[in-house]
Amino acid sequence: MKKIDALKAGVAIIILNKEKDQVLLQKRSDVGLWGIPSGHIEIGETVSEAAIREVKEETNLDIRIKKLIGVYSDPLSQVFEYPNGEIVHFITTCFLAEIIGGELQCHPDESLEIKFFDLGHLPQDLLTMHPRWLKDALSNQMSAFIR
Q1: DSSP letter assigned to residue 76
Q2: What is the pLDDT, as a whole number, of residue 4?
């Protein structure tokens, strides 16, 4: 394993459409790959505040958190290398959320594109850890995953 430069707390937010057959994904501007809206927790924020803020920044949507999906820390899936060479090990808290307001809008400093995808037709260029989060969210397991 390469040398890890930092350990950071992150959040990921799975948003399904009302029919629950599509998931909201963003094409990230930093790496050009599709993924579930996600980001860092800022100092002084709770994980739920960070989730709500990140979704607002990335999609212009207001959300309500419905459920904790899980906490993910396995270095095999949670180590991420940025284009600048920085390698970060994330401990990510993943939530299921619903839209309560706002209008879907792409913010170019965060995303190249943002849209709903059919669950059976996800893009090929999806970030490696995100399919696990989505699979766990769709499992309907009552308790949270710890991976």
Answers
A1: H
A2: 94
Q: Which of 42, 49, 81, 113 is catalytic?
A: 113
81 is catalytic: no
* Secondary structure of residue 101 in the 3-state scheme: strand
The answer to whether 146 and 70 have CB atoms below 8 angstroms apart is yes
d(CA 21, CA 18): 8
What is the Cα gyration radius of the chain? 14
State residue 113's pLDDT score. Answer: 94
Distance from C-alpha of 87 to C-alpha of 104, rounded to nearest angstrom: 31
Residue pair 11/47 in contact by the 8 Å Cβ criterion: yes
pLDDT at 1: 65
Per-residue tokens: 128:
């490696």
Structural domains present in the chain:
6-146 (3.90.79.10)
Residue 5 CA neighbour count, 13 Å, CB half:
8
The Cα–Cα gap between 40 and 52 comes to: 12
